[in-house]
Amino acid sequence: MSKFMLGAWMVLVLIPLLIGMMWAIRSHYLRMDGAQRPETPLDPADVRLRVIVPIAALNVPARQALAFARAMTNDNSVIGVHVTDDAGAAERLQVEWARSAHGMANLVIIESPYRSLAGPLLRYIDALNETHPDDTLVIVLPEFVPRHWWEHVLHNQTALRLKAALLFHPGVIVASVPYHLAR
Fold first, then answer.
1. 152: pLDDT confidence band, cut at 50, 70 and 90?
2. Which residues touch 84 (CB under 8 Å, ≥6 apart)?
3. Which of 84, 112, 143, 153 satisfies CB 3.0 to 4.6 Å to 120 for a cystine?
4. Bridge partners of 174?
5. What is the pLDDT of residue 22?
6. Are 162 and 139 in contact (CB under 8 A)?
7. Among candidates 127, 125, 119, which has minimal Cα distance to 172?
8. Which is it for strands 78-84 and 172-180: parallel, antiparallel or unpaired?
9. What do you get for the CA distance between the two ends of the chain, in Å?
10. Helix H segments across the chain?
11. Is 110 strand, coil or helix?
12. Residues 135-148: pLDDT tens digits?
């Protein structure tokens, strides 16, 4: 009793907390074992890809990502998505897209008056997922790989935020196409 006030009371608190935590972990693993259903088709013949490539401009990283997307599936299933708040820049991109060799890949321009990228893009992906529920959506992100560690502050923040946001979209696959900056 004399040691109870000096710290023995912690045993009475910690043991039930540890047991509760271990019980919750076991319950989680049991739920995982019993409730696994596929989000994408398991038979390769049933997989129909619809590939979305978010682009800011038709620079080299965007062209690499588009080439990778076109290599995965036919051109009709590849969609380049540009989110902008500048109508003039969007028109220039459309003209450049029409002149470039992207086959039958489509370009979708989403106007975002508040310079927000993730919100409008995620709404477009959700709408596409609803209109084509049998398709597997693949988001191909062009991503800069900087030369020095400190250059990460300048690049990849958008791709990182999009990856994090798309992680919670079931049935959506995210692929990164790295572009290594010149050494």
1. confident
2. 90, 93, 109, 110, 111, 112
3. 112
4. 139
5. 96
6. yes
7. 125
8. unpaired
9. 70
10. 9-34, 60-72, 87-99, 118-131, 157-166
11. strand
12. 899 999 998 888 88
Phi-psi region of 45 (alpha: psi -120 to 50; beta: other; left: phi over 0): alpha
3-state secondary structure of 139: strand
Residue 51 pLDDT exceeds 90: yes
Residue pointed to by tokens 């902008």: 84
Kindly state the average pLDDT of the residues 154-173. 84
**Ramachandran region of residue 135, left (φ > 0), alpha (ψ -120 to 50) or beta?**
beta
Look up residue 49 and give its amino acid: L
What token pair was written down for 25?
């972990």
Residue 86 tokens read as 């500048």
Residue written as token pair 């500048």: 86
Q: Which two tokens stand for residue 19?
A: 């047991």
Total count of residues recorded for the chain: 183
Q: Exposed, middle or buried by CB within 10 Å (0-12, 13-18, 19+), for 67?
A: middle
